[in-house]
């Protein structure tokens, strides 16, 4: 590119966007990269403080910011994304559908350690809606050495940084335990809460079994729901450490692989996660009945996006796993569950 006087720019091709800012009124693009300067543009450019502008001179081995942003987007973008128009070396990533945002944080760090290019994202494992802005690329200089982009492409090596995993709408079976509920001494408060939360993701509760405190009965109820076609089992009640709280041992008795009994999340410490083959079994602590947001809200979208959760994943929730229990819950816009 070369720098020339605005008065000499008529007929030349602008090599960068020019922004117009009027405080409190507008911040928008006045001239777009590639615009051919006309005589009537000179007065406008001067009003924007542009006595001189840069016009494009293609040079081998160097990229304009917009071209570099497009290549940066291509190396970072995975499934479930749409994109904004490139503007001043920036491209926004937009969710194409509802789903779970997955960020390759290791690869993101490596790319951002390179000079003169950045990728900024929302948090990993964030439940997103269609149309949400998820990430953005930005190229710092107007003209960048192509070697920087080539280096980023080599680091990515075909791996993506940003993906939206769609939710799977599954059949849910609920097993509610407790003599007090079974005998009608108190009304079940878990069922309505669970139905509301899973139906928000398009899931269907096929049955809810209310059973008394008996290991064999709880175990048989879980197996029966699986036989009926349940693709996820949610167990409520009997999740503490009292002698008559039998749900964890009953889940284990089904032959399920217990990933963890307990998680560093408040509310939700007495949470259990297990898998019976590929069917997740969630043991929910009592706080799910009354707390606005708990570990259930962190784990549910991950399970429904078929993200296999490990004990390391659950342990990682300790950083950011303390809910502030605000009077007005703003999750997932708050810090809860965002540390990992």
From TrEMBL:
This is Molybdopterin molybdenumtransferase. The lineage of its organism: Bacteria, Bacillati, Bacillota, Clostridia, Peptostreptococcales. Belongs to the MoeA family. InterPro entries: MoaB/Mog-like_dom_sf, MoaB/Mog_dom, MoeA-like. Pfam families: MoCF_biosynth. It catalyses: adenylyl-molybdopterin + molybdate = Mo-molybdopterin + AMP + H(+). It comes from Tepidibacter hydrothermalis. Its EC number is 2.10.1.1. It is an enzyme of class 2 (transferase). Keywords: Magnesium, Metal-binding, Molybdenum, Molybdenum cofactor biosynthesis, Transferase. Residues 173-305 form the MoaB/Mog domain. Pathway: Cofactor biosynthesis; molybdopterin biosynthesis. Its cofactor is Mg(2+).
């Amino acid at each position: 590119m070369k720098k020339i006087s605005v008065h000499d720019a008529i007929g030349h091709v602008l090599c960068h966007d020019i922004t117009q800012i009027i405080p409190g009124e507008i911040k928008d693009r006045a001239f777009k990269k590639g615009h051919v300067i006309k005589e009537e543009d000179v007065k406008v450019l001067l009003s924007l403080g542009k006595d001189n502008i840069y016009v494009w001179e293609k040079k081998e081995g160097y990229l304009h910011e917009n071209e570099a942003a497009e290549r940066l987007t291509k190396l970072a973008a995975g499934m479930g994304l749409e994109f904004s128009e490139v503007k001043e070396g920036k491209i926004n990533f937009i969710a194409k559908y509802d789903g779970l945002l997955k960020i390759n944080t290791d690869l993101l760090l490596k790319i951002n350690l390179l000079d003169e290019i950045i990728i900024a994202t929302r948090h990993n494992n964030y439940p997103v809606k269609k149309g949400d802005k998820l990430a953005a690329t930005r190229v710092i200089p107007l003209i960048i050495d192509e070697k920087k982009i080539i280096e980023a492409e080599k680091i990515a090596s075909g791996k993506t940084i940003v993906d939206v995993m769609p939710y799977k709408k599954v059949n849910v079976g609920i097993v509610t335990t407790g003599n007090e509920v079974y005998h009608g001494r108190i009304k079940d408060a878990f069922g309505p809460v669970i139905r509301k939360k899973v139906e928000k993701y398009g899931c269907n509760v096929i049955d809810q079994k209310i059973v008394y405190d008996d290991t064999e009965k709880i175990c048989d109820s879980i197996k029966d729901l699986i036989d009926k076609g349940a693709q996820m089992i949610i167990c409520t009640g009997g999740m503490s450490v009292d002698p008559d709280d039998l749900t964890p041992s009953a889940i284990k008795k089904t032959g399920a692989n217990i990933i963890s009994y307990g998680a560093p999340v408040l509310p939700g410490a007495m949470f259990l996660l297990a898998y019976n083959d590929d069917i997740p079994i969630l043991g929910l602590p009592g706080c799910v009945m009354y707390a606005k947001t708990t570990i259930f809200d962190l784990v549910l979208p991950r399970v429904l996006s078929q993200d296999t959760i490990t004990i390391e994943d659950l342990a990682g929730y300790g950083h950011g796993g303390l809910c502030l229990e605000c009077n007005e819950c703003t999750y997932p816009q708050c810090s809860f569950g965002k540390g990992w």
